[in-house]
Design a protein that fits this description.
There is one protein chain. The protein has 805 residues and is of the alpha+beta class. Helix content is 50%, strand content 19%. The chain has a six-stranded mixed β-barrel. A six-stranded mixed beta barrel has the order 15-16-21-18-20-19. The chain has a four-stranded antiparallel sheet with strand order 14-22-13-23. A hairpin with a 5-residue loop joins strand 19 (586-590) and strand 20 (596-605). Helix 10 (289-316) runs parallel beside helix 22 (674-708), helix 12 crosses helix 14 (384-409) and helix 22 (674-708) runs parallel beside helix 25 (768-794). It is elongated, with a radius of gyration of 34 Å. The two termini are 39 Å apart.
Length: 805
C-alpha cells in the first residue's frame, strides 16, 4: 500500500513539476526563516541560565521619586547586600560591584585600552558560579587589594596565552596580579566584561544608605520568592534609609511618602534582565521581549504563508485530479485511503522542504549572525531539540497544509466528476477559500512592508534629528581624567593643532556613566522640596567642542575663579523650576552631614541629547571641574589621522604611564540605537521573504487560472477581444484581492507599529503615505506576477487555443 502511494505521488510530481517546485521552494524558504528565528528566540530566552541556581539569583534596584523627578535602575547603596545577609534568612548569598567600561591595561610597553572591568567584592564568583575556570582557582581569587581575574580572550590579548596566573598588569597606574583565568563568558549573559578585579569599599560608604552607586545581586534560599523578600526590602528602607533621609533632608520618610515621594528597593530575576529591563545604568542595551514576540509572530506568519501556498495550489488543481479521484473511487478506493494518499504527498514534500530548509539555514548562519548580532553555530542547528522540532514541523505542516486538499479532493463523487467535462469540483467554496487565503497572504506582506518602512524611517530620524550638539567629526579621548592637573594644559595644546576646530573636557556623552544625580534645591526653597537632578562634570571649552548653543548668560571661562562655584543649566531644568530668567539664580546642593553647597547659575544651554532617543531630555546641571573624564576634540573636515597622531604624541609626553585611547562621538551615538537598525534589517528581510512566498503562490494560481480559462480566452480573441482586454480580465480578480488585503493590513500595521514607536520619546509621525506606498508596492508586485501569465495567455492565437475543441 505504502509503495503504491509513493508511486502515485511520484507520478503526480512528474506530471506537474512546476507546482511541486513552487510548493517545495516556498516551504523551504519559510521553514528556513522559521528555523533561524527559532534559534534566535531560543538564544534570547536562554540568557544567564548557565549559572547554577540561576532561577534563585536576583538583581536589586532602586525605585525613587522626588518631586517630579523619577529614577528607576539597578543601583543600590553599598551596605544593602551585607545588611540583607545579616537580617534576612531568605538571602543565602550576596555580592556588590561597580562597572567600568574603558579601563586601560598596560603590560610592559604594550597598551590595551577599552577593557571592560567589573570591580567586585570577594563573593562575586560565589553568586555567579557558572563561569568555568581554566587556570588558577576562583575560591579566593578576589581576596586581596590588587588582584584580578581575566577572561581567556583578555589573557590572550595581553600576554598571547592563557596560562598567566601570577603575571601582573598595570591598570590605570595600579599593578594587579592575575589570580585566575576563566573561559570566555557566553554571549548569553547580561554581564559583559573582560576582567573582574577586587574592590575595596571605604568605611564611610559601608554605612552610607542614601548614596546609590553599586550593583547588588543576591541568591535566595530554596523555596524563597520575590513575594517573601519584598516586605523585608521595605523594612530595610524603614530601618536604615529613613534615619539618614531625616538627617539629610530634615523631613521624615513618612512625610516624604505622604507628599508623593517614593523610595523603595525592588528585585528582578536575573534570567529576566535581558528581555525585561531597559532602565538607566544597564551595562549595555538589553534585548526586548517585544522583539521576541514580534519575530516569533513573523516566523509563524511566514510559515502559514508557505502552507497557504500549498493549500491554494492543491485545491486549484482539483480539476486535474478529479478524474483520478473518480476512477479510483469507482474501482473501490475509500475516502480514507484517498485522504491518506494526499496527506502522504503533503508529508513527502514537507520532508523534502524541511531537509532543504536545514541546509539553507546552515548556509545562511554567517549572514544571519552579522545581521541579527548573534553567535549561532552549526551545532545549534543540529541539536536534539532542533531535530525533534523539525520532525514535529514535518508532521504539523504536513497535516495543516495537506488537510484541506486531502479531505476536499477525497469528497468528490465518481458519478459527478466522470460524467462531465467541467470537473472543477473544488466549486465555489474552494474558490472562496483560495481568495481568502490570498487576501491573508498579502495582508501579512503589506503589514510587514509597512513595518519595514516605519522602522527605517525611525532609524533615519534618530540619526539625523538635531541633537543640540555636534556629533560629527568629534574625537573623544577616553580616560582623560588620568591627566589630572595636566588636563587643562593638554587641552590648550590640542586647540593649537592644525585641523582642530575646538577642544574641551567633559563627562561621557551618550554613556550610562556620563551623568550622576543628587538632590538640588532652587533658591530659598525648603529642604522638603529637594529634587533629584542629573548633573554632568565638565571642563572649560566643552560648549565649543560640542557646539552647544548658549541661549542665555555665558559658559565657563578658564582662569575665572568665581566659576568654581558656578553652574550652567539646560532649558529643561529652567522649565522644571519655572525660571523665566535663570541667570543669577541659586541652586543648593544638600549633603548628608547637613551642610549645603551653593551654586550660581551663569548660563543656560539649549536642550541637548546626552542619552538615547528612547528618553526625553531630562533637566541637567553642568558643574565645572579642574579635570573631567574625557576630552572632546572637534576636527575640521578631512583626514583625521595626522591630528590623531599629534594627539597621541602630546598624550605620551604628559601621561606616558596610561595608554592613549579614543573613539568618535557619532559611533557612540549610533551604538545606542543599534537595536533599531538591526530591527530594520530583519524587518526588511522578513518582509521580502513574505512577499516572495506570496508571489510564488500567486504565480502558481495565475498559472492554473490561465490554463483553466484557455478555451475562454481563445473564444474572446476570436470574437475580437484585444490583448489589453484579456490581460485586464485575467488580472482583475487578483488585484481586487490585493486591495482587500490592503484594507485588512492597514489597521493591524498601524496599531502594531504605533505601539513599537511608543518606546521612543522622539519618534516619526506615521503618515498615510507609508501605507499607500506599502499597498502600492504589493499591488505592483502582484500585477507583475499575474501580468506575466496574463500577457502570455492573451498572445496565444485562437486557432491554437481551440485546436482540441
Amino acid at each position: 500500500m505504502l509503495r503504491n502511494y509513493l508511486k502515485i505521488a511520484g507520478r503526480a510530481v512528474q506530471r506537474r513539476p512546476g507546482p511541486t517546485l513552487i510548493n517545495v521552494f516556498g516551504l523551504t524558504v519559510g521553514l528556513a526563516v522559521c528555523l533561524l528565528i527559532g534559534l534566535w528566540v531560543n538564544q534570547e530566552l536562554s540568557y544567564d541560565r548557565f549559572h547554577p541556581n540561576a532561577e534563585r539569583i536576583y538583581r536589586l534596584g532602586l525605585d525613587l521619586k522626588m518631586q517630579d523627578q523619577e529614577l528607576k535602575g539597578p543601583i543600590t547603596a553599598a551596605p544593602l547586600g551585607p545588611a540583607l545577609l545579616d537580617n534576612v534568612p531568605e538571602v543565602q548569598k550576596a555580592t556588590r560591584f561597580i562597572y567600568d567600561a574603558d579601563v586601560g591595561f598596560q603590560v610592559e610597553a604594550d597598551e590595551f585600552p577599552d577593557t571592560r572591568v567589573i570591580w567586585a567584592d570577594t563573593s562575586f564568583f560565589d553568586v555567579f558560579a557558572g563561569f568555568d575556570v581554566l587556570h588558577g582557582s576562583l575560591d579566593r581569587a578576589l581576596d586581596g587589594d590588587e588582584v584580578i581575574v581575566l577572561t581567556a580572550e583578555t589573557a590572550r590579548r595581553l600576554y598571547g596565552r592563557t596560562d598567566v596566573v601570577g603575571e601582573t598588569a598595570d591598570l590605570n597606574g595600579s599593578v594587579q596580579e592575575v589570580t585566575a583565568v576563566i573561559r570566555d563568558p557566553p554571549r548569553t549573559t547580561h554581564l559583559a566584561f573582560d576582567a573582574v578585579g577586587s574592590m575595596e569599599i571605604s568605611a564611610q560608604m559601608q554605612d552610607m544608605w542614601v548614596s546609590n552607586n553599586y550593583y547588588t545581586y543576591i541568591q535566595l534560599t530554596a523555596g524563597a520568592t520575590e513575594g517573601t523578600l519584598q516586605p523585608k526590602l521595605d523594612e530595610m528602607v524603614t530601618t536604615f534609609v529613613a534615619p539618614q533621609v531625616k538627617q539629610f533632608l530634615g523631613v521624615s520618610m513618612e512625610e516624604m511618602i505622604g507628599g508623593g515621594a517614593r523610595y523603595r528597593y525592588y528585585t528582578m530575576p536575573m534570567t529576566d534582565i535581558h528581555l525585561h529591563s531597559n532602565t538607566a545604568y544597564e551595562f549595555r542595551p538589553n534585548g526586548s521581549i517585544t522583539y521576541v514576540y514580534t519575530f516569533s509572530a513573523i516566523a509563524l506568519f511566514i510559515l502559514i504563508l508557505a502552507c497557504i501556498n500549498f493549500m491554494n495550489l492543491a485545491t486549484a488543481r482539483a480539476s486535474e485530479r478529479a478524474t483520478e479521484v473518480g476512477v479510483r473511487k469507482a474501482l473501490g478506493a475509500g475516502r480514507s485511503q484517498l485522504a491518506a494518499q494526499f496527506l502522504g504527498e503533503a508529508m513527502i514534500m514537507t520532508t523534502v522542504a524541511t531537509v532543504a530548509a536545514v541546509v539553507v539555514a546552515l548556509a545562511s548562519l554567517p549572514l544571519f549572525n552579522s545581521i541579527a548580532a548573534t553567535d549561532l553555530y552549526v551545532s545549534d542547528v543540529l541539536q536534539v531539540e532542533v531535530v525533534l522540532g523539525s520532525l514535529l514541523i514535518i508532521l504539523g505542516v504536513g497535516l495543516f497544509a495537506g488537510s484541506y486538499p486531502a479531505f476536499a479532493l477525497s469528497r468528490f463523487q465518481p458519478a459527478q466528476v466522470l460524467k462531465t467535462d467541467d470537473r472543477h469540483s473544488s466549486g465555489g467554496h474552494g474558490r472562496r477559500l483560495r481568495q481568502g487565503l490570498v487576501i491573508l497572504q498579502f495582508a501579512v506582506s503589506i503589514a510587514l512592508i509597512a513595518g519595514t518602512l516605519i522602522v527605517r524611517d525611525q532609524f533615519d530620524y534618530v540619526q539625523t534629528k538635531r541633537l543640540g550638539l555636534e556629533k560629527e567629526q568629534v574625537a573623544v579621548i577616553n580616560r582623560a581624567w588620568s591627566l589630572r592637573f595636566d588636563q587643562p594644559r593638554f587641552v590648550e595644546r590640542v586647540r593649537k593643532i592644525p585641523g582642530v576646530v575646538a577642544a574641551g573636557a567633559g563627562a561621557g556623552i551618550f554613556r550610562t556613566e556620563g551623568t550622576s544625580n543628587t538632590l538640588f534645591l532652587p533658591d530659598d526653597a525648603p529642604i522638603s522640596e529637594a529634587q533629584t537632578i542629573n548633573y554632568m562634570t565638565v571642563g572649560y571649552g566643552l560648549d565649543e567642542a560640542l557646539d552647544l548653543n548658549v541661549v542665555a548668560g555665558r559658559s565657563f571661562k578658564d582662569g575665572r575663579m568665581t566659576d568654581s562655584s558656578a553652574v550652567v543649566i539646560n532649558q529643561a531644568l529652567a522649565g522644571r523650576f519655572g525660571w523665566s530668567d535663570p541667570v543669577g539664580r541659586r541652586l543648593r546642593e544638600p549633603s548628608p552631614d547637613g551642610s549645603e553647597t551653593e551654586w550660581t547659575v551663569i548660563g543656560v544651554v539649549e536642550d541637548f541629547h546626552y542619552q538615547s532617543m528612547h528618553y526625553e531630555v531630562q533637566p541637567l546641571i553642568l558643574q565645572p571641574r579642574r579635570w573631567a573624564e574625557r576630552v572632546y576634540v572637534r576636527l575640521a573636515p578631512g583626514d583625521p589621522v595626522p591630528v590623531l597622531d599629534r594627539l597621541r604624541t602630546y598624550w605620551a609626553e604628559l601621561n606616558p604611564e596610561n595608554p592613549f585611547q579614543y573613539s568618535f562621538l557619532d559611533q557612540s551615538y549610533a551604538s545606542l540605537h543599534r537595536d533599531t537598525q538591526r530591527t530594520g534589517r530583519l524587518f526588511t528581510i522578513f518582509a521580502g521573504v513574505a512577499v516572495l512566498i506570496a508571489c510564488l503562490g500567486l504565480f502558481g494560481l495565475a498559472t492554473y487560472t490561465t490554463q483553466r480559462r484557455t478555451r475562454e480566452i481563445g473564444i474572446r480573441k476570436a470574437l475580437g477581444a484585444s490583448v489589453p482586454q484579456i490581460v485586464t480580465l485575467l488580472s482583475r480578480e487578483f488585484l481586487v484581492l490585493v486591495i482587500l488585503a490592503f484594507t485588512v493590513a492597514l489597521p493591524v500595521a498601524y496599531l502594531a507599529m504605533d505601539g513599537w514607536l511608543s518606546d521612543f520619546a522622539y519618534r516619526v509621525t506615521v503618515g498615510p503615505w507609508i501605507f499607500i506606498l506599502s499597498g502600492g508596492l504589493a499591488l505592483i508586485v502582484a500585477l507583475i506576477t499575474v501580468g506575466y501569465h496574463a500577457v502570455r495567455a492573451a498572445r496565444v492565437e485562437p486557432t491554437q487555443s481551440l485546436r482540441g475543441e
